[in-house]
Amino acid sequence: FDRMKEQTGIELNESQQQAVLHTEGPLLLLASPGSGKTTTLNMKIAYLLFEKRVSPDRIMAVTFSKASARDMSRRFDDYFSGWSDERVSFSTIHSFAYKVVREFMSREKIPYQLIEGGGNKGRLANGLPLHKTFILKKVYEDVNGAQPTEEEMDDLMSFISLVKNRMLEGKELEKVSCQAKNAPEVFKAYESFKQTEAEVTLLDFDDMLTFGHEILRENEEMLKKYQERFDYVLTDESQDNSVVQHEIVEMLAAPDNNICLVADDDQSIFGWRGAEVDKLLQFEKTYPDATVLTMTENYRSSQEIVHVANRFIKRNVDRYEKEMTTPNESQEAVDIHTFQNDEKQLDYVVGQIREKRGEEEVAVLYRNHSSVIPLVDQLDRAGIDFYMKDSEAKFFKHWIVEDILNFLRFSYNDSRIDILEKIHTKFNAYISKKQMTLLKNRQTDGSLFDQLLNLDIQEYQKKAIPKAKQTFRDINGMAPDQAIITIREKLGYDRVLRKMVDNFGFRADQLFGTLDVLIRIAGSCDSLKDFAFRLRELEELVKSAHSRESSLTLTTFHSAKGLEFDSVYMIDLVDGIIPSNDDIEDYRDGERETMEEAARLFYVGMTRARSRLELLTYHYLGNERVKESTFVHNVRAITGTKKTNHKEKENKVDTSSFEGMDPGTPIIHKTFGRGTLMEYSGDLIVIHFEDVGYKELLLETCVERGLLSKEKQEA
Ligand code: ATP
Ligand code: MG
């Protein structure tokens, strides 16, 4: 340990040392954020290599994602590259499983093809591309005799992933909620399609895990080979492993069971993808001789941040109770800023970053991918470079972006039939398919609107068409943001989208969110051409920012896991974003799982910060009035910060003795009995009652009627 300290500057504490030395037999290291889990794993690997002289290829170090495997490997190199260039491979369970699949398929001479993750090659005889979404759509249609909505497709994808990752079978499938019609049947049909319909076996992303698992289970010889190949199995971020992943790891580690799982149940954020924290709790059942160590001392963050995060996560019911502490100094208070709108928030963030440029590591964390595009735009205009953890180029490929560009193109030149073809159903001139065919056959030049007027048109079109023509001409002279607003409002694009939401199950928040982002970008462009050009430029920028280095990182909460920064700005903290509308809805329906996962995500975000943590929220998102995130509200209750420009209520009832209570405080209600305070939101309080579950109550009324009392703590 002395040599390690000399090399890395880190002096391991007692439990960390214990974990490092515990190399033989099963070990579960259950620990808080910043408590040195990843550090300890790295030290342990070094101990195995340099002290116990274990050969690097006998160690299997896995973690959740390729990105975190890279982060971990980089950290290891930072620490120990001086000692030797022996390299342990850090990888994911997924890529290991894929290796097993490849080996098996080539040994058995079974041809196969991947249908997910780029490079979708080949088609069936009927032209169907061998790609997951196409296949799933087709199978859905076969089963249900109708097309799936976008929402159903999203849900179906998650359903399949969840079923496979949790290894559910038969009746268990019925218990998983899924909005897609007959999801279990569609799933079965999808599975059999991949086995039988093409000339080769088709494999999606999750299949690599399920197949890999099956192969190891059924081929003793192959399993033995891999078991003998590795003497030590270590996994970081194990709280995000799914059942099938856990089982693969367990099989590999047998029979010696030199297995080390490192995890934090409070940071489990991939439940929707089948992660199973319960598996961790069963560790001692699986391995009766297991050692379980906990570490709760956070070396990363300031006292203020650790205090707030520790109190915050207690709002969750489904967790191991632990108290996170820190030996670190007190620094700045956790800051909450409320802005008038999202635009003001953006100005603030850019201003802050400009001030700090290069002096420290800064991260901006966001929940939704599209949130970052306006920020990218403004940072670039301010000449600030940045690194992006996720590749966000997908935004620019959305059909809404294409639609808007086509509207603009048509406004320059309304004689282009190829453009009209793409948008004629999307604005209020009500042009029919038949009219489009007639137009195409005429092959004359000049405004297509004028040509339409010469056709046999409907009565209402006689007014609508000249009006649309004029609007398009007007758009041509407008500022870009005004142009988009005109498309939405005057040309009826919003109404079309609304219909798509109602009739075809598109997601309203996604569609209108995309438009809001476009308007935001358009706001800083001088002309329509400038705007179109800017979009392409941003797309390139986003692509290149993904493979760049910078002291400024932009990332989603999910991808920030395991990382740390001096300053962290969490943006867009409003209800509907984090927690999401779905989380809120589930919660109202009495399901707390997704809300708790959202809280863990928020917690992951907060615990990334070393010295400074700022939570940013606003009153208006575009034109829409929004509410500060419930989670920010919780933090206020902890830090005692009042909302700024908050209207004082003229209530006569004094509710003050119930305000500022921590989530987790025991409460007694005269009607509902014993419960635990979950949150405040506005005038409402949410209590989880032992007998009747969740209730949202009006605080004022409860107090007025004397229904509430705090439960006396045992003296
Ligand atoms: P997370 O849950 O976020 O992944 P973690 O438990 O993996 O966190 P690490 O990233 O390993 O935590 O460590 C957090 C920070 O604390 C790092 O900067 C690391 O160098 C430092 N650290 C870890 N252990 C010690 C120690 N014993 N003394 C001083 N610093 C430490
Ligand atoms: Mg870690």
UniProtKB/TrEMBL annotation:
Enzyme Commission number(s) of this protein: 5.6.2.4
Amino-acid positions noted as binding ATP in the UniProt annotation, renumbered to this chain: A31, S32, P33, G34, S35, G36, K37, T38
InterPro entries recorded: DExx_box_DNA_helicase_dom_sf, DNA_helicase_UvrD-like_C, DNA_helicase_UvrD/REP, P-loop_NTPase, UvrD-like_ATP-bd
Catalytic activity: ATP + H2O = ADP + phosphate + H(+); Couples ATP hydrolysis with the unwinding of duplex DNA by translocating in the 3'-5' direction
Keyword terms: ATP-binding, DNA-binding, Helicase, Hydrolase, Isomerase, Nucleotide-binding
Residues of the UvrD-like helicase ATP-binding domain: 10-302
CDD domains noted in UniProt: DEXQc_UvrD
PROSITE patterns: UVRD_HELICASE_ATP_BIND, UVRD_HELICASE_CTER
Sequence ranges assigned to domain UvrD-like helicase C-terminal in this UniProt record: 303-562
Gene Ontology BP terms: recombinational repair
Superkingdom in the source lineage: Bacteria
One Pfam family this sequence matches: UvrD-helicase
Record GO terms (molecular function): 3'-5' DNA helicase activity; ATP binding; ATP hydrolysis activity; DNA binding
Enzyme class: isomerase
The family this protein is said to belong to: Belongs to the helicase family. UvrD subfamily.
Name assigned to this protein: DNA 3'-5' helicase
Species this chain originates from: Salimicrobium flavidum
